[in-house]
Amino acid sequence: MLPYPVFEGYSRKLMTLTMILKNNEILLGMKNRGIGKGKWNGFGGKVEPNETIDDAAIREVKEECGLDVISIEKIGIIEFEYSGSKELLEGHIYLCKLFSGEIIESDEMAPIKWYKIEDTPCDKMWIDHKFWFPMIQKQIPFKAHFKYLNDDTMLDSTIVIISNSMKKSRKTFVNFVIKKENQILLCNKIEGSKCLLKHKPVRNGESIENSAIRYLEWNYGMTAEQFQKIAVVDIEFIDDSCTQEIYFFVVDVTKLINTPLIEDSKWVNISDITVENLWPDYTFLSKLLMMEPFKAYFLINEDNILCSKYYNN
Ligand SMILES: CNc1ncnc2c1ncn2[C@@H]1O[C@H](COP(=O)(O)OP(=O)(O)OP(=O)(O)O)[C@@H](O)[C@H]1O
Question: Which of 13, 15, 62 to mutate to test the pocket of ligand 1 (most atoms within 8 A of CB)?
């Protein structure tokens, strides 16, 4: 499943953005004019006619911070869309770890400062930065699309990993939302945050349905009429060599005499589940509970969700 949006009838304006790294530091400049005025940013600008994108990146670094690029590598492509506009800004994102010369501030960019990566001033940068910065840190090629209403309000974000996905192995799991009347079984994931039950691996050669039957009938004596497949979710972990595909079933155990007990889990009133403490998010659970079939895609960096997308079946 590819969550990436398709654009027809849009023109494109090419731009570059180079993030300069040294050990554990990143070089940022305060933009004093043009696009992104008042924000810390990497270095870049429009690609001129008759210039390659790589050459534009090298030229912009020199113009905006004085450094001479020795080598750069492209790490991502980001499309910026503004609501109501039929022009996409196509930003080519580069990493530069080899450079020479002295930093020179200009009217356009000052001050220019090395920041420790963990001290990157995300709140004074473009909002999109925090979504793709983990890719820069971990040097994972990506493609992204951000839709803005205006410079301070983002309407939609999509990030996908490009090169790795092909090489990644894929594991399939089933998982269950077990409910009775107004309660569901949730497990405690980390302190204060709740999630559905643990994913159960589907065996090699076994169908998804048979796998669900095996877990539910064998362990809890349920019959196939009591559960229904609602959703399939693709989860990609940015630094893992495998992606997960998880099929979610909703199981109503209201009529069972002995309600199941599942390791590390407890019954929770649905009305007590708050938007903040549920993983991955509330939309996910509410769609399942409304038995509304869907597909979803999540891109995860450690415990953060960088991208979540829902599609109706
Ligand atoms: C919407 N969210 C965004 N998030 C992160 N970065 C963004 C951005 N939108 C624009 N950028 C970057 O801002 C620079 C603008 O370049 P900027 O130099 O102002 O363009 P300008 O029109 O002045 O071009 P010239 O330098 O004259 O070629 C350029 O690096 C471009 O990639």
Answer: 15
Give the pLDDT score at 227: 85
Ligand 1 pocket member 29 (CB < 6 A): no
Does the beta carbon of 128 sit less than 6 angstroms from any atom of ligand 1? Answer: yes
Using a 6 Å cutoff on CB, does residue 176 contact ligand 1? no
Per-residue pLDDT reduced to its tens digit, 196-205: 788 899 999 9
Would you tell me which CATH number, out of the four given (3.40.50.880, 1.10.150.20, 3.30.830.10, 3.90.79.10), belongs to the domain 168-312?
3.90.79.10
Whether residue 66 is predicted with pLDDT greater than 90 in this model: the reply is yes
Place of tokens 């309600």: 259
Residue 164's pLDDT is 54
Please tell me the distance between residue 113's alpha carbon and the centre of ligand 1 in angstroms. 18
Nearest to 14 by CA among 90, 128, 99, 126: 90
- Which ipTM was obtained for this model? 0.93
Q: Ligand 1 center to residue 139 CA distance, Å?
A: 22
Q: Which one-letter DSSP state was computed for residue 216?
A: I
Nearest to 288 by CA among 189, 186, 214, 209: 186
